[in-house]
Structures are given as structure tokens and as C-alpha cells.
Please model this.
Amino acid sequence: MTDTTMPAPRLSLTQRLKRPRALIVLSLLMVIPLIAYVMFGEPLARAGIREIVLIPAIPATLILYALAMASWRESWVAILGGTLVFFWVFVAVSVPFLPLLDPNKPIRPFAPPGTEVGDITFWLGTDLKGRDMLSRMLWGCQRVLVWGVTATAVAYVVGCIFGLIAGYISGIWDEIISFISNVLLSFPVMVLFILILNYLGPSGFNIVIAVTFASAPAIMRIVRGLALDNKTRDYVFAAQTRGEHPFRIMVVELLPNVRGPIIVDACLRLGYTTVAITTLTFLGLGLQPPDADWGLMIKEASNLMVWQFSYMLLIPALAVSSLILGFNLMADGLREMSLRD
Amino acid sequence: MLKLIARRLLQMVIIMAVVSLILFLVFDSDKFKKQIATAELGGFSVAAMSDHDYQKWLKDKGLDVPVYERYAQWIGGLLQGDFGKSFEKDAPVSKVMGERLLNTGILAFWVFFLMIPLSLIFGIVAGMKEGSFQDRSVSFIAVFTTSIPEIATAILLTVIIALGLGWLPSKSAMTGGWNSLELVLPVLTLVLYDFGYVARMTRASMAEVMTSQYIRTAVLKGIPYARVIMRHALRNALIAPFTVIVLQLNWLLSGVVVVEVFFQYNGFGKMLLEAALFGDIYVVQAATLVAVFVAVLSQIISDVGYTFLNPRIRFS
Amino acid sequence: MSFLKPRKDDHPKVHEAYEVMKDGRMDRREFVRVAALVGVSAGAAYAMAGIPSPAWALENSPFPADDPKAKKGGKLRVGMQIQKMEDTATYSWAEMSNQTRHIVEHLSMTGPDNITRPMLAESWTVSDDLKTWTFKLRKGVMWHNGEEFVADHVVWNIRRWLQPGLGSSNVGLAAFAAMRKDSGKKDSKGKAIMVEIPGAVEAVDKHTVRFNLKKPVLSVPEDCYNYPTALMHPSFKKPFSSNPIGTGPFTLTDLQVGKQAILKRVTKMSNGKPFTYWGGEVYLDEIHYYNFSNENQLSALASGSVDAIYEFTIEQMALAKSLPINIIPARTARTLCCRMQISKKPFDNHKLRQAIVKSVDNAKVKNLVYPTGGDVGQNHHVAPVHPDYFDLPALKRDVAAAKKLLAEAGYPNGIEVTIDVGNTDGPWHQTVCEALRDQMKEAGINLKINVMPASKYWEIWDTTPFGATAWTHRPLGTMVMGLGYRTGVPWNETHMASKEFDAALDAAEATFDVEKRKPLLGKAEKILQDAAVMVLPIFRPVYTGSSKKVHGFPPHPTGYHQFNKVWMG
Model:
């Protein structure tokens, strides 16, 4: 994606930040190592570079956070949301380097928060298998962030492609794509998730597929609408008269101009996807043990319903809520800012 | 208008036919038949079954019939109100599902009963004066409650109210017969999660109306403020929330799954999950169709209602 | 110690067993069990063994003694998965049998002391060659429909189980397997179709049934209490739940699968006359089963939704201990078998399997997962609770030897293997695998744990190259060995095919004297252990719980419910 080719009809959000290309590089630097770390941990570990992969992500996250804070000064909602989100992202990229206990090592079951065993203190206690809750909570954000971001990104790519085709090419393609998306949109989301994941089997990759099925139609509609709206603009006509290929027009001319609303929608959708992953994992259809994950922590503790062990439920519940709150506040702030433009 | 409704209904029927056919084809695979056998008989029994026994089992379950024939039979039954039989529950699907739908219906009734007035009042109060203290606090509460996922809300409520204070039971399985107390936590969970969204929609709509020309004129004319709100503003401000509220029916069908599973409430959502995991084909079929039906119907009602209520659209 | 001597007319096996016991070659409890099996009353058997007869060993009743403090009436609410009740003969889960056990009954009943006593039979006798078994039925036992329970009804039931195509697992039991022969016909997969031997089961008179078996079987009474062997009225039609006629104290009034099963006392027969239960006092008026998935049962008990539960797992022990409930443990031979399939790569490599086994310290794994209770497994599937258990020298972990074996197997730089685990009995399966992973790592074996939902695991349990399969309790060591490791049997998940092993097992099965059987079974154990087909570190206890209001809730190694003497305080 290039961002410098054409004049924008309106100052869009990303352009308010001064150097978009640098920002994209930074974001990728932040996200890709994390994705590699979680999804391809095994081969990386064999090559002996599993931890090293994450090192570039740490400064990238911090710089990105500083830049975001600097440009969002006018919206405290965005600042608060961004801080929450970046906190968890920072935890995700730096957690292997933090002085934590092994999140999968059973030490002492059912130790309440603050228990001291020898020279170890379990600040948040241990779970039913005796694993350190603090460590599991911090490690747990990795999986949810990685799968959430991946699933949302894939849903976006698919939704944008079909949306642009439907909106720009129209005709029979529009009919077909719209019908399929109507079918998918007529399912309550959770019903669709259950059907798809039950068919494919529970795993992170299958969550990506399920989220794509559930989210792409809605994204498709937004992009289609924006594409229909933008199609009649001068800059598209100009490109058409230059004799450019429709695909090039779609990607190079149209897409960058519809990104403002898409970014806000993406933030909200990241929140939904996080909820979906946690919920599906709780229902046993999502991520599988043994690695730490908030949904799994809830699932494992949900059959220990007494006051004395309620910390095992509260900790992951609060963690996941804070991340989603972050996404939602960020989306709110960004929307507010983009409306002011 | 009628033409519009008819077209949407026809579209719904087509969608349901497509969905049910896809489900039939998916569930017809040998893998799924094996899954049902395993769920029903256990892995050890299935491994010990001879091919002869397995074929007989398939025949007993009516799964040896070719898929197109089964689909035709099923459609035929459907037209007579027969949804088939549940493998797991060993009872007609209509009976199993009717009961579960009723339970979810009761849950949904109370959710709407509490959520509608709550969210409308909050939304109106917030939207009356944009940017005021009440507006900001309502907006903040709304973002906050919608940001806590149902599973977390359920946990927080259970831990505090049921486990900590001991005021309410922590499970809603209704083992001792119907117990309204057991309904409180699931209803509260759903209301807390949902009301913020509707309140924000109401607020946005109200705020828009309040800035409109005719309200300003009314205020300038000296009509009492309360009367302006009640008589003029509300009527128009409630059009958008109406459509949103109807659409919440669709959302509720998603939301109830996790809440019912968490609280062990025997409703539609829990049934759907159980049936999917078991491979209980006809229950999954029926439940999916009901879900799609409700979802599409709520979309139609919301669209039609919006057109009907909004004079600008109706007369244009 | 005073021993009552067997009478002259007691079965020769009793005399034989008595001598063996006197020589100290047979456990006294085992003697009681054997004596009871061949028809000596439990009370007499206890007296011969010289141990006090427990409270439930009343003459002429399989049930525990009446409790003088017991209060009559009330209902017991039990949390369990509610399943359908279609045909008792084809039941495949203990839960559905629990819903049924209060309605229909068996010829015999095995008590919590592992002694099998006559139930609907009054007594039995067996020929010296253990081939002809004669059951005298109790007189005056009434069906709920007003008919008397007679010999023809027993014959009808057994002949039904023997039909080809019914698919009852009863035909796998030694007693009923010895009533069938090869028909000479084959099914589509080339398997022989088995049919009933004419006259294998006959009604001698109105209250006498005779089994004529083709080979000697000792366990006939025990087989008659296996859960699919409940005796139904000949008017039975599927599903059982819609016409639940039985001889038991309760009947089914409402069944909603996945929700509830309501059982109520039978007071009137369908002909209007009052119903008198043959088994004496029954305290409860109603038994209500409510559906709770296994992981939610203890929470349901904690919240007061139910009074007792089917089972809770070891992970919930801390919760259970924090609650004001009775924790009821039972020592069992239930286990988790982390087995390798020797027909699949890389587990066809014997040295690799040995390296895997050598790198694990079974006792350490057991103590991590079950700090108290349970027994350490020695990788051969026979448990210390089995009467025929032969104690082989304990296995020793040896990392250096494991490394050496691994190199010899062709993996000098280590190997990565994946184990499938479905947590079918609870999350502790995964804890076991994690412990294995940590221990194997030191030997250069990188164990990956592939966790999957229980239902998915049951689809692949007999095909996966490396998987952790849960096995239930069975009363005898020879039984598990025969079911799981004999060449070509359906549940042989390791694909073990050893003539030597089969011969050793045959020899053990053919030996009546337990003390003589032990070393023979020991030989089979050793062959299995040396084959290194599995890591089997734990024989676990099962835990159930009841609220303090519930009295007399019986522990049972396979979780069978029999609530005749349970009462609510």
C-alpha cells in the first residue's frame, strides 16, 4: 500500500500523523515478530532465535505509543484507550524478558494471592494446578492479541477485496457477493461461530477462518458502500481515463481514500474479536491448553465456584475487560477526532 | 410497503433453504456420523463394533438413507411441523426446542423489560444536553459496561453477589423447579452488557433531534422545556432506538449462549452448543433455522418499522 | 482366629480355595469373593475366612443393613449427566445405567466390599467343572405391572442379548460369550457371525434357571451385575424410558435428556394392587437426577442445587475440602494409559519406546497429580487393587540409559514426538502429560502435547500413534489384560501382538488358584512391561461427594448407584 500517490478529498486520520509510511513500518515491526513468536514458536525455538525475534518489537511498540500519545493529545478518551491497548501489547512483546515464573509450571495449587513459598511470592496466587496467576495473566495476552489481530486482519483483507469488487465492478459480481454476505449476515454471530468451529475443530487457525466468515460480510458492506460513493469521484475518473487497470484503481486509488472509517471500524472489530476468542475458548471451541490464555483460565476456574477461589476467575475477567475497554475507548477517540476533521 | 415485506420474506425463505441444505451436506459426512456414534455410544463401544453392528446402528438412526432423500423427507416433515428427532435427547426436536425457546424467551423478556426503559432514560437524559456532566457520565458508563464482555460481567456479578454476599444462587439450573431468583444474574448480565449500546444510540439520536431547527424554534417560541422534550423531541428521537432495540433480538441469540452455559440455564443457546458438540443433526438444523428466522425477521421489522415511523423516508 | 470350615456339600472350589487360603496363598477377601461366586452365602463365606462380616452382609439380602436412625421419606437430588434410556442391553455409559438401576434389577449384585451376592436370584449352585450354573430365583418378586418374576423372564432376557445384530456388549462377558458359537456365516467385513448355542440357557421350572456353558467360567455371578445385564420385562419395547417396568423400588416418572430424570417410589402396581418391594426397607421417596456436566457437578453441590454428585476430579479436591460435604473416595484400577501404537512410526522402534519409558519416573508423576491416594502404575495395566496383581520390581528412571537407547534407536540428537490428549476424565490427563514432557526433556525427547476436546479424542483413541487413553476399573487383572492387549482384540490400542503374551495370559486365565495365577499373570505383566508400549503412571481413586444431609451414600469403584439404604437427615 502506498500512501503518497494522490491528493485526498479530505484529510484522513492517518494523514494527521505526519509520516504514515514510517508508522506502517513501525506497526508491522510491532505485530509481525509477535505473530511469528506465537504461531511459529516451535521452528523458531529450534533455530534458537525464539526470544530474539521479539527484540525489535519492543522499541517499535514504545515509539509507536509515544507518537500516538503525541498526536491524540486532544482526546483523553483515545489516550486512555491507547494506553490500555499499548500496555497489553507491550506486555505481549516483552513478557519473555520479564522476571516471571514459568506460566506452565505447577508449583503449589490453590495458593491465595500474596502467598510466599520460600523465596517466591505469588502476588496474584496460583491456579488449580499450582501455576503462577500473575505470570499466566501476563502471558495470556499474547495469544489473544495475536489471534485477534490476525483474525481481524484476514477478515479485513477478505472483506476489502470483496467489497471493492462488489462496489467498483458491480453487476453480477455485486449480486453474488451481496447474496453470500446476506446469507452469512442472517446468522447470529455466535451461531455461525459454533457451526464453523464445530465443523473445523477448535484451534487458533480455525478461529481466524470463523472470524473471517462472521466479520468479512460486514466489512464488505462498508467497503462496498465507500467504493460506490468514491467511484464517481474525479480522481477515479482520472485514473480510468489514464487507462489504468481496474485492480490497480481499486487498490491504489480507492482503498487509501476509504481508510478513515475503516480504521475506526477495525478498532471496534478488534474488540469484538477479542471477546469472541475469549468466549469461544471458554465454551471449549477456541484455543486449546496448555499455554496460558484468558479464556482458558476462565474455563478452568469456572468449576471452582466459591468465594475463596474467586480470584482465579476475576483476574482473567478483569484482564480481558481492560483490553477490550482499551480497544473501544480508542475507537471512540479516533471517531471523535475524525469527525472533527 | 407490502411488496417490500414480501420480497424480504421470500429472501428469508431462500436463505433458510440454502443454509439447511449446506448443513445437511456437511453433517452427512462419514466423519460426522462417526462423531454421533462416538458421542452416543462412547469411544470404546464404537471401536468394538463390527461393521455389521455399525451399519445396523446407522439404519436405526435413519442415517443410511442417501442425503437427498433425507433432506426431502425432512422438508416434508417440516411442512407438517415435524422437525425430526433428537439423537441425544431421544425426543422430538419440536418438544426439546420448544421448551428451551420458552426458557430463553422468559430470559429475553426480562432483559428487554429492564433494558428498554433503562437505556432510553439514560440515553434521553444524556442527549438532552450534549456535553453536559450527565451526558459525559452516561457515555462513560455506557462505554464501560459494553466493554466488559458478557463472560466477564457474569463472573463479576457471580463473584460479588452470589459468592461474596450470598444473596443469589450462583447457578441457574432450576433443579428445584422454577426459581425466579436464579434468573436474576443471567438477566442482569445481559442487561448490563446491552443497555450501554442502546443508550448510546438513543443519546446520539436525541442529541441530533435537539439540534434540529424545529426544536430550537419550539424553545424560542417559549413552549415549556418539558413539553418540548415530551411532545416534540421524543417522538422523533425514538425512531432510531426503535430499530436498534429490535435488532438486539438478533444480538441476544448470540449473547445467550455464553450466559446460559456459564449459569447452566437450560435455554436455547446452551441447547445449540450441546447439540453442535454432540452432532445432533436435527437439533442443530432446527436451532439454526430458528436463529436465522429470528435474526432476519428482526432485520425486516427494524427496516420496515423505520420506514414506517420515519416520515422523511415514507413520503420521499 | 476361628475359621468356619466349608461343609461337605459346598462346591469343591470352596474346599480348594479354603485350603489355599489356609496356606496363606490367598487373600481372605479374595476367598470370600470366590466362595460367594460359587454359591456360598456371603455371611458363611466371611465366617470361613475368619473376618467379621461387614454391615451389609446380611443373609439373604444384597443390600446394606437397615440403619435404626434412618428417617423415611424425602428426595435425593443427584448431579449427573442425564442420558437417554433406550435399551438397557445396549447401554454404553455408567450414567444411563445409574438412572435405570433403581428400576430394573439384576440376578446378582456386587457390593462395595467387592463381594457378589444373589439379588433377584435367591442362590446359585455350580457344577464342579464350572460349566453348569443353576440359579434359584427369589419367590414373590413382582413386576410393576403386577406379574410375578419367573424363570422364563430371565431366559427371555439372556436370549435377547445373544442375538446377532443387537450389539449388546454383554456378549463380550465371559458368561455370555460361553453361550455363543460361530454360525459359519460371515458379515461384510469377513468377521464371523456368532449365534446362540441351543439350550445354553433354560428354565428348569418356574423359579429355576440353568446356564449350560461351553467352557468353564468362574465369573458368571459377577458378569450378571455388569450394567447392561439388567433384567427387563418381556413386554419391553424401545425406548425403556417410555414404559419402565421393573422389579425395583422406583419407577421413572419423567425423563428429559440433558435436563432431569425423576424417579419415584412404586406404591401401586398397574393392576391397582399395592406393590411390596422384595428387598425390604427403602427410605427415599424420590430420586431426582439433574443434568450437570462432569466439571460443574461439584459447583452444583456447593451451591446447594443437588445433594450428591456422580464424580469430581482431583483438581477440584481443594474446593471439595473447603466445602461442608462428605468426600467419598474409592480405590480403583482406573487409569490413564499413555500408549504408543507399535505399528506406527516412530513407535515401531522398540529402543525408542524403551527410551521414552526409561526417561519417566512413574512414582513422581503419580505423586505430583495425586499427592494422596491412588497407586503407582508399573506400565503393565494390572493394578494393586486387582486380586491377581503380581508385584514386579518397581521401575527406575534412568536418564543416561534413556539417552543411550535413544542414540541406539537412531536419534542421537533427540527426537520430537506428539501425544494426543483429550482430558476425557478431567484436566489431570494433561497434567500427567506435562509431567512426562518435563521428565522426557532431560533425556532429549521433546514431547509436544496436542490437547483436543474429549469428544474428538474418542474418535481417534484407537488410531493415534501416541495418545493418553482413560481406562475404567475392571475387577480382575486378567480382564484388562485380555481386553486391551491380546492379539487382535478390538480395544488393543497399542497393536501389541505377542504370542508369548497371549500364551502367558491364557495360562493365567485358566488358573483358578489366585496365588498360582499371580506369577502367571506376572509373566504377562513382565512381557507387557518389557514391550514398553506405554507409560502408565497412575491408578487413580475416584471421588464423589454428598451433602451432610445424605446418609449411607455408597462408594463404588465404577460409580454404580444403588440407593436402597440411602436416607436424608
Q: What stands out?
A: The beta strands of chain A are 115-117, 120-122. Chain A touches chain C at residues 42, 104, 106, 109-110, 128-129, 201-202, 284, 288-290, 300, 302-306, 308-309 (CB under 8 Å). The radius of gyration of chain A is 22 Å.
